[in-house]
User: Fold this.
Amino acid sequence: MFARGLKRKCVGHEEDVEGALAGLKTVSSYSLQRQSLLDMSLVKLQLCHMLVEPNLCRSVLIANTVRQIQEEMTQDGTWRTVAPQAAGRAPLDRLVSTEILCRAAWEQEGAHPAPGLGDGHTQGPVSDLCPVTSVQAPRHPQSSVWEMGGPRENRGSFHKSLDQIFETLETKNPSCMEELFSDVDSPYYDLDTVLTGMMGGARPGPCEGLEGLAPATPGPSSSCKSDLGELDHVVEILVET
Amino acid sequence: MRALTATPSCLAVSLPADIISTVEFNHTGELLATGDKGGRVVIFQREPESKNAPHSQGEYDVYSTFQSHEPEFDYLKSLEIEEKINKIKWLPQQNAAHSLLSTNDKTIKLWKITERDKRPEGYNLKDEEGKLKDLSTVTSLQVPVLKPMDLMVEVSPRRIFANGHTYHINSISVNSDCETYMSADDLRINLWHLAITDRSFNIVDIKPANMEDLTEVITASEFHPHHCNLFVYSSSKGSLRLCDMRAAALCDKHSKLFEEPEDPSNRSFFSEIISSVSDVKFSHSGRYMLTRDYLTVKVWDLNMEARPIETYQVHDYLRSKLCSLYENDCIFDKFECAWNGSDSVIMTGAYNNFFRMFDRNTKRDVTLEASRESSKPRAVLKPRRVCVGGKRRRDDISVDSLDFTKKILHTAWHPAENIIAIAATNNLYIFQDKVNSDMH
Assistant:
């Protein structure tokens, strides 16, 4: 999978530059791999919250991997700064590594076109966005992680969303949960139950460690009924009620 | 090693329903217990050697089957608690009955297994079917006598140790004092008394005050086989901590920390994940520990904390595939490891239904396969080889054609003889060495 993306990248480079830039080619393919690994890890962390029996050991190991990558990228200075040229690779390359993990989400998106997600938090066409990430209802910016060949301007929002993810990794800010929930106007969301479930540690033990990362959804037996608001509809799709 | 590769015979028993999740011989090796994903325990018993056929050594037949755990629903967390049996540990036998502990993610149960081969006959007040007799027909008194009957194996739950763990239990270990045992989950270890179910003592707690600071979990733990105050637990960062319960009530401070410094030349984003210890076992002698991480098994001397004394590569050809294995989650597979009775050979499972054995004395190793095709009963197991490019022999398997869905996570070695039990998904294989069944 890496070979495919790399080959395209290498060919593109060799057409433009001479061997003197071979070092740069190696560096950028490393960055490509690292980025793919980061994407994959974030997806895994998101997915693990949807499972019935999340495995704490696996989650901790993945979260540590994400932190390592973030630290390295911060040292490199590649964190936060996204030059449009650096993001010039074709969208499919980035998604190759996450293709398998995305597959279920794509299928769902085919069956249920994603409703408009949030407001003003995503820049690309909403219909392109996969609903999977919005299962973390308050964490809507992550929807752009799953961008499927959307226009390049989405890349800015992707990196911004990574920031938000890591901010919550480091600083637990309970009050922001309420703000994020304020968009939800469904009467079926029992805010107290949901917040208690997410914050009070009543959620599954294995996910506790990552409550800073992404809060768990209400369980499938809870209140996602058919005529919910948009976010609830999405949650419903994901838990396949 | 030589003995095992010579003429092992094989008995493959297929458990129809479920994936085997644990395998454990009892202390004499007469009984072999397996637990599965459906919460069932199946116990096999070794048939006594027959005098008529001296070359046919005892084979294992089903002795008892029972449902140990049922699925539960935790209403508070909206979470199903799996009935999968994570571990079984036998208690040392103290009377005619056998006892074992079985655990799922949350609850440990003590089961007593008894045999009944006699039944009383000749009651005065009840007839053969147990119905009350008409008193007018009773004209004389008789003493009931015990008559032989077909062997019946009865299993009953004697204790249920519940509500001790918030996180998922990964290990249980019976203390050499035969009175206590410990159970470990991702963040805590509890000490129980076998007779007391409503109380346990927390002896290790690595849960951070702020869960966002969590970077390490407990992966396995075991009591020392002889010293009832010592136990070890392993972590997801590849360290082992030996703790002494005499030092303090809460053993958060280890007595010894066993950790190998990282090899900078092999460093990658996956270094930590592959260093996570999936199993730790004391040797029978109590002098060494055996650990399994993703690519290696290591032998540690309790007297040396700085590094293992021996390291064996299980499947180093996977080192270049770590990213793919991370993507398909195989990198998180937890393989177990085992010592033979004399601590001279160690064994662990791998992919493609392969398992590996390493002779610590001769430094030779072998790869064998547990599959129906290659293991007809009484067939000799043929050593397998994975080729990594270069010269390829006829029966070699290439790395790319390994089946990663066929993983051997659970293996067990008879405490005294060269008999091994291998769980391959939902099949149990028992291999024994006929030529030389004693330890060498």
In short: Confidence is low (pLDDT under 50) at residues 1-9, 436-440 of chain B. Residues 1-7+15-104+107-126+141-161 of chain B form one domain. The two ends of chain B are 9 Å apart (CA to CA). DSSP finds three helices and 32 strands in chain B.
